[in-house]
Amino acid sequence: MRLPDRWRTERLIIRSSVLEDSRELNRICASWKDKIYVEGEGFSDDFIENCIMNGDLPPIENADISNFYMMTIQDANGQIIGFFNLYHGYPNKDTLWIGIFVIDSEFQGKAFGQEVIKAICDECKKLECKSIGLGVYLKNWKGLRFWNNNGFNIITGVYGDKEYSESNFSLMGLRKEIC
Predict the structure, then answer these.
(1) Whole-prediction pTM value?
(2) What does the pLDDT look like over 62-85, one tens digit per residue?
(3) Domain coordinates in residue numbering, the chain
């Protein structure tokens, strides 16, 4: 069973990304002004195109692109306002993993992100997944608050550098149980 290629929420359209989305999705990547500070590196020039064509597969044996989804978020007028990607089956077969989730900085603070997370949870239930997982960098205070406020409150681990410095980075694994 797979996620649908397209679904709607109250105000949004969520659909599979296509190469024609690349220009807008790259613009949204560029709108994340503090990504280098938060994560230690920016987006590679071909990040979006690579995700659409090859997937951004997890570091597990037998990772398969058929379990990967690169999704574009549009508002009711069809304007692209964000994107995310998912992998069904990481770190275990009952988990849907959010690899990245970005809302254009111009559209943040309008509850679009919450609406998308609710939709992902609804679709996850249909797939009979038991949880949704993700990793968020510890310097990403805004992201930590967002994910916690959306029910990702089970800490699965802390990974990366063991000591804090401007040039060190760690992330926290978070999980949300789906009932």
Answers:
(1) 0.95
(2) 999 999 999 999 999 999 999 999
(3) 6-127
